Amino acid sequence: MRRMRNAKILATLGPASNNEEMIRALFNAGADAFRLNFSHGEQKDHRKVYNMIRNLEKESGRPIGILQDLQGPKLRVGRLKGGEVRLERGDRFRLDLDTTEGGEGRAPLPHPEIFAVLEPNTPILLDDGKMRLNVLSCGPDHAECEVVTGGLLTDRKGVNVPGVVMPLSPLTEKDRNDLRFGLELGVDWVALSFVQRPEDVAEARKLIGGRASIMVKIEKPAALDCLEELVELTDAVMVARGDLGVEIPPEEVPGHQKNIIRACRLAGKPVVVATQMLDSMVQSPAPTRAEASDVATAVYDGADTVMLSAESAAGHYPCEAVTFMDRIIERTERDNFYRPIITALHPEPEPTAPDAISAAAAQVAATIHAAAIVSYTTSGSTALRAARERPRVPILALTSRIEAARRLTIVWGAHSVHTADVENFQEMVAKACRVAVDEELAKPGDKLVITAGVPFGTPGATNVLRIAWIEG
């Protein structure tokens, strides 16, 4: 099943889509990979959904990527008398470690790590930023605040403290337990929430031990301050616009989105743009024009993948949401302005043989009007280098490792196929031609540009470029 586009679709599964029939429908509509959100649901439920996806993979004969999205620390106020309290602008309001129910003028905040970093004039956001407090004075167990933006505060609403680095690991005990579970299942990607500093990635890398690839979610202002280091340390990045838009002004999100995409493209790391892309489709069978433009903008900027959250997980029209996203991507990539925009940012190849071969492959493919670039890859790194060039033709990634094939399902332009290694040049060319035709990427009479590493099957050893003609 060949997609007629380069950018990929990552669909979140949830109550509206966690059955075999709907997962198959989403895949057929255009979903390339699926996200399991471990902020919701039990492990047993995620196991069932995981098995459904793997059964579909066998049925379709196509690799399907699975992303495990870990919850991360959740900072929330405690219980309130009657379940709610009204905050009025200008009122004084106290937050403290006292676990007794809150009420008029006070709420429990059972997170000593928050009080450890507070200072006077620090803003505190409640309920996704709907209410805003300003710290007047504070201690290790309390904060006296002034209400800047009022509203109705109810039990267990979230708390954000923008502009400060929390002394918190992104991996709670729940996350560590979920991570062990996900790795035992065999997830392909692990998304880390609440990342603030490079050390957070190093901690996760040690626990994962190469059993899955890591995706860092950029949702904290502190992560923006060390973006280049995070991109270097991770395997992929997600622009988590929902949480990020709570802690920074909404008008700053688009610029940061473009900067994150740019940083990832320069580094050759996949980048996912997420949150509220077609949000109206939770309730409506069609997106707004602004939402279509939002998806198109991410595609013009060169994002590898665009993601659906509530639209496919809990909305009334999950399949329609994937269908519309697929249509928007296809139409955008056919636009006359797409190619000039996508190639305006052209990363310089690293001074290595694999990078030189990948850069040359894109140029040769354009010059001879090849139908596709065929990359023999063991770990997936060769296909990633090919995608970094944003070539005009599809990338057929042939790999003997199913794990690599699945992880490439979120990579721009990569059509991955799980197949046995080749042993010589003749077999290399013959298989490339045969698979390209079978996968509907080429036809007899077309040319292919083939890259591989010799000795065959050696990870990261790309050192061969070959032009082949498909015989009739």
Strand order of the largest sheet: 1-2-3-12-13-14-15-16
Tally of structural domains: 3
Shape: elongated
What average pLDDT do the residues reach? 96
End-to-end Cα distance, whole Å, is 22 Å
**Strand residue content:** 15-25%
Instruction: Report the total helices.
Output: 17
Which structural class is indicated by helix and strand composition? Answer: alpha/beta
Q: Briefly note the CATH topology name of the largest domain.
A: TIM Barrel
Low-confidence stretches: none
Give an account of the 3D structure.
- With 472 residues, the protein is an alpha/beta fold.
- It folds into three domains: 8-73 and 170-337, TIM Barrel (Alpha-Beta Barrel), CATH 3.20.20.60; 81-160, M1 Pyruvate Kinase, Domain 3; 353-469, 3-Layer(aba) Sandwich (Pyruvate Kinase, Chain: A, domain 1).
- The chain is built from 17 helices and 21 strands.
- It has helices at 20-29, 43-60, 112-115, 173-185, 198-208, 221-225, 227-233, 241-247, 253-267, 289-301, 310-313, 318-334, 338-342, 353-368, 381-388, 402-407, 425-438; strands at residues 8-13, 33-37, 65-69, 84-87, 92-96, 106-108, 123-126, 131-139, 142-149, 151-154, 159-160, 189-192, 213-218, 236-240, 271-274, 305-308, 372-376, 395-399, 414-418, 447-453, 462-469.
- The strands form four sheets. It has an eight-stranded parallel beta barrel with strand order 1-2-3-12-13-14-15-16, surrounded by eight helices. Strands 6-5-9-8-7-11 form a six-stranded mixed sheet, with no helix packed on it. It has a five-stranded mixed sheet with strand order 19-18-17-20-21, sandwiched between helices.
- Helix 1 packs parallel to helix 12 (318-334), helix 7 (227-233) packs across helix 9 and helix 10 (289-301) crosses helix 12 (318-334).
- The protein is elongated.
- The mean pLDDT is 96.
